[in-house]
From TrEMBL:
This is DUF624 domain-containing protein. It comes from the Bacteria. The keyword DNA-binding does not apply. It comes from Salibacterium salarium. Keywords: Membrane, Transmembrane, Transmembrane helix. Pfam families: DUF624.
Length: 221
C-alpha cells in the first residue's frame, strides 16, 4: 500500500508541474500546432515561425526554468508548504530575468546552428552532419543551463559558462542527459504523444537535474 501511495504521489507531482509548464507555454503550443496544418509554403511557415522564436525567451525559457526548480525540490527531497501552483509561479517570477537573458542567447545560438544545418544540407553533407553533432552538444548544454540556473546563485554569463564546462567536462552527465532526453522526446513525439501534456517536461527536468546533482555532490565531496 505504501508503494502504491508513493507511486501515485510521484505521478501527481510530475503531472501537475507539467500541466503548469504547458499552461505557461500555450501560445507557443498553439502556433506550433498551426504549423502542422498550414499549407506548405515558405511564406506561411515563416509567418508562424517568427512569433514562435520571439516567444521562446519570453515564455518557454522562464517556464522551463520554473519546471527545473520544481525538479530540484524533488531530487533534494525538499518539503514546501506552498501549493504547486504558488511555488511554480514563484520560481517563474524569481528567475524570469536570468532565464529571459538565457533564452535570448540560446535562441540566437540555436538559430545560427539551424541555419547552418539547412544551408549545408544541400551543399556539404559532411559539414551538415558535423553541425548536427554540434546540435546534440548544444541541446545538452541548454538543458544543463536550466539545472545550473536553478541551483546556483550566478550571473547569466557565469551560469552559461558553468553549464558549458559541465557539458564538455563530464561525459557521464552528457550521456545521461542526451540519452534520457532523447528517449523521452522520441516516445513523446513518435509513439505516445498524449504524455506530452502530462509527463514529458517533468521527466526531462527530473532526470536531467538528477544527473547534474549527482555530479554536484561528487565534486562537493
Amino acid at each position: 500500500m505504501g508503494g502504491f501511495y508513493a507511486i501515485s504521489e510521484w505521478i501527481m507531482r510530475f503531472s501537475i508541474a507539467n500541466l503548469y509548464w504547458v499552461l505557461f507555454n500555450v501560445p507557443i503550443g498553439l502556433l506550433l500546432l498551426s504549423l502542422l496544418y498550414i499549407e506548405e509554403s515558405a511564406g506561411s511557415a515563416l509567418y508562424l515561425t517568427v512569433p514562435v522564436v520571439a516567444l521562446l525567451p519570453v515564455m518557454f525559457f522562464p517556464a522551463t526554468t520554473a519546471l527545473f526548480a520544481k525538479a530540484r525540490e524533488w531530487v533534494r527531497e525538499e518539503e514546501h508548504t506552498a501549493s504547486s501552483a504558488r511555488s511554480f509561479v514563484s520560481y517563474y517570477k524569481e528567475n524570469y530575468k536570468t532565464s529571459f537573458i538565457g533564452g535570448m542567447v540560446f535562441v540566437a545560438v540555436w538559430g545560427v546552428l539551424i541555419a547552418d544545418i539547412y544551408y549545408f544540407s544541400s551543399r556539404n553533407e559532411a559539414l551538415m552532419y558535423l553541425f548536427m553533432i554540434m546540435g546534440i552538444l548544444l541541446f545538452v548544454w541548454t538543458v544543463n543551463y536550466f539545472s545550473v540556473a536553478v541551483h546556483y546563485d550566478m550571473t547569466f554569463f557565469a551560469g552559461f559558462k558553468h553549464a558549458f564546462l559541465i557539458t564538455v567536462g563530464s561525459p557521464l552527465v552528457f550521456l545521461a542527459v542526451a540519452l534520457s532526453c532523447g528517449v523521452i522526446l522520441y516516445i513523446s513525439l513518435y509513439i505516445f504523444p498524449l504524455i506530452i501534456p502530462l509527463f514529458t517536461g517533468s521527466l526531462v527536468a527530473f532526470l536531467s537535474f538528477s544527473a547534474f546533482y549527482r555530479l554536484h555532490r561528487k565534486l562537493a565531496g
